[in-house]
Amino acid sequence: MATTHKQLNTVGQLATSNASALYTVPAATKGMVKTIILHNTDSSDAKTAEIFYNGTANSTRILNVSLDAGETFEYSVGHMLPLAATETIHGREAATGSVVNCFIFGAEE
User: Fold this and answer.
1) Rounded CA gap, 100 and 85, in Å?
2) So where are the chain's domains?
3) How far is C-alpha 62 from the geometric centre of its chain's CA atoms?
4) Distance between CA atoms of 64 and 91, rounded to whole angstroms?
5) Strands (E), the chain
6) Fewest C-beta atoms under 10 Å: which of 14, 36, 68, 102?
7) Tens digit of pLDDT for each residue in 42-61?
C-alpha cells in the first residue's frame, strides 16, 4: 500500500550543466511522482529549468520551462508518474545553478 502524499526529494536546488539526481527511488520500492514545483529565486533574471525522467538525455526530458525572476511553476501530472526501484528524476538549470528550487511530491510503496 502506498504511503501518503509527501515530499520525495531532499535536494532543494537545480545544478548547472550535468543534470543532478533530484529523487532516486529506494531499492525494493516503487515511486510515484504527482507534482513538481519549480521556483526561480533570482530577483532579476529568467532561468530555464529542465527535468528528466530516469536519465539525462534529450530523449528523457519531460519538462523544459523558462521561469521569470521570482516565478513559481507547478507541474501537476494528471496521473502518477511511476518509477521502479532505483529509477530517478534528474534536473538542471541552464545558467547559474543553485537559483531554481525544486520540490517533488508523490508517494512510495
Assistant:
1) 27
2) 6-108
3) 10
4) 10
5) 6-7, 20-24, 31-40, 47-53, 61-67, 72-83, 88-93, 100-108
6) 68
7) 999 999 999 999 999 999 99
